[in-house]
Specification:
Blueprint (H helix, E strand, L loop, with lengths): L4 H16 L3 E3 L6 H12 L4 E5 L8 E7 L2 E7 L5 E5 L14 E3 L2 E3 L6 E3 L4 E3 L3 H4 L15 E5 L2 E5 L7 H5 L2 H9 L6 E12 L3 H10 L4 H4 L1 H5 L6 H6 L1 E7 L2 E6 L16 H4 L9 H9 L1 E7 L3 E10 L4 E15 L2 E11 L4 H14 L5 H7 L4 H6 L2 H5 L3 E3 L21 E3 L6 H15 L16
Antiparallel strand pairs: 1-19, 2-11, 3-4, 3-6, 4-5, 7-8, 8-9, 10-11, 12-18, 13-14, 13-20, 14-15, 15-16, 16-17, 17-18
Helix pairs in contact: 1-2, 1-16, 2-16, 5-11
The structure holds FE2/S2 (inorganic) cluster and fe (ii) ion (FE2).
Fe (ii) ion (FE2) binds next to helix 13.
């Protein structure tokens, strides 16, 4: 019997839902084209998606090309300073009106028949306008735009869904954790350099899961850091982790660097004279305590935006440099992901520190960095297995059981000052299971009779 694409999606969702109770997930979800098309419709078209950092489009007329799902959009700042997310398709015959990855322009002129749009998306002109379009209702022929755009902590998100919840509702308790990281100084953050891009033969969820909190891979995948003397004891680092699951598919994890044996002067490894420059103006006392005790290391805003505040350690100079990375797992197909990575710095950091930290960051993070090389060689595995006839015939599911009751030591943090569920160890995949349950919910939305994937947090 040949399954229709809708049958295949239903079969994968049923396997995901039944596996959620005992920590398994079907490999087909990392490779099946029908599942991927359903994700574009039910996840990416319904979510708030990261499109840019505000500092990338600092001046009127600045723009960058990005995507909402697979649809290309121009993120612009208009002449009045407002940000727009415009669908890059001419309203005449659909040709792209912008082809540069970034630039500055007051208008976008279509290369096909010359229709021209202002950088706020409104229709501006066309060749021989008075002869050809004497009575064109120009107010109705501007570029289509994302109906919702929000900017918070300099992060620009947009939702293609007219019925989307507010961005605050969408984030829920995740805002508390993002604020702790990106709200460290009220002068904000800026991007340095270009976003780096890497095209992987991997499904977007593999990267997303990694940023939810795949702490168990660190000591093995990244043993190269230990070999180079850049991390003194990776296994001990695993003991330093804690996991936080704020709900709605978002996740974050943290560590206590004081237990690392590294020469740490201030949270995250900032030099004390740099740390003292951060005003922490918007942070509550609880957020300040959280930052001091358990520095948020990385996290994921559902579905595909990640952040990572890590460090590089030079064993010769014994110097620790802190860098913050923004990360987008841009879907390009069921088994293709374009990874975009930005390095961002607090405006308050002295320029000399920023520059040096940026250089060190490139060595560890981003496409050419040590960490990414380690990860990228392995992230194609779920997609490869997901395409396998053998795996399908044997109904192979992947294992996410770490941290289920009776599996590993660790439990909730007694005095955690923040919202959501917590877990005082690296030895859990609970954050990933929470991400998967939210994915199942989103994929099942509108499907009558879908299986109940269980409630977040019930199986940490
Ligand atoms: S397609 Fe753009 S002007 Fe015709
Ligand atoms: Fe990694």
């Amino acid at each position: 019997m040949t399954l229709t694409s809708s049958d295949r999606v239903q079969a994968v969702l049923a396997a995901a839902a039944s596996g959620a109770a005992h920590g398994t997930f079907p490999v087909e979800a990392f490779a099946d084209d029908s599942v991927y098309q359903a994700e574009l419709d039910r996840v990416f078209a319904k979510s708030w998606l990261f499109v840019a950092h505000e500092s990338e489009i600092a001046e009127p007329g600045d723009y960058v090309l990005r995507h909402l799902g697979e649809d290309e959009v121009i993120v612009t700042r208009d002449e009045d300073g407002r940000i727009h997310v415009l669908y890059n398709a001419c309203r005449h015959r659909g040709a792209p009106v912008c082809r540069g990855a970034k630039g500055n322009s007051s208008h976008f002129r279509c290369p096909y028949h010359g229709w021209t749009y202002r950088n706020d998306g409104t229709w501006a002109s066309a060749p021989r306008k008075t002869l050809v379009y004497k009575n064109l209702d120009t107010a109705n022929w501007g570029l289509l735009a994302a109906p919702h755009v929000a900017v918070k902590w300099g992060l620009v998100f947009a939702s293609p869904d007219p019925a989307a919840p507010s961005f605050d509702d969408y984030l829920g308790d995740m805002a508390w954790y993002l604020e702790a990281v990106f709200g460290l100084d009220s002068r904000g953050m800026i991007v340095m350099g270009e976003p780096e891009r890497a095209l992987l033969e991997a499904n977007w969820k593999t990267g997303a899961e990694n940023y939810c909190g795949d702490a168990l891979h660190v000591a093995h995948t990244h043993k190269s850091l230990e070999d180079l003397g850049m991390s003194q004891q990776l296994l001990r680092e695993q003991e330093m982790y804690s996991m936080f699951s704020p709900g709605k598919g978002h996740a974050t994890f943290a560590w206590n660097l004081e237990r690392s044996g590294l020469p740490i002067e201030a949270p995250w490894g900032y030099p004390k004279q740099v740390w003292d420059l951060f005003d922490q103006g918007e942070l509550t006392a609880d957020q300040q305590r959280f930052n001091a005790e358990r520095m948020p290391l990385a996290g994921l805003v559902f579905p595909n935006f990640g952040f990572f505040r890590g460090f590089s350690f030079d064993p010769v100079s014994q110097r620790v440099m802190v860098h913050t990375q923004l990360r987008l797992y841009q879907p390009r197909g069921a088994t293709k992901t374009e990874v975009l990575s930005w390095l961002v710095f607090h405006v308050a950091e002295p320029e000399e520190y920023r520059t040096k930290s940026y250089q060190d960051g490139l060595f560890v993070l981003n496409a050419p960095g040590i960490l990414e090389q380690d990860d990228f060689t392995l992230w194609n595995a779920p997609s490869r297995v997901g395409r396998s006839r053998f795996a399908r015939d044997h109904e192979m599911g992947l294992n996410y059981q770490a941290g289920l009751p009776g599996m590993s030591r660790g439990g909730p943090i007694e005095d955690h000052p923040g919202p959501g569920e917590s877990y005082d160890s690296a030895f859990t995949e609970g954050n990933i299971r929470a991400f998967q349950r939210h994915w199942i919910d989103q994929m099942n939305a509108g499907n009558v009779g879908s299986a109940d994937p269980g409630r977040p947090g019930e199986d940490r």
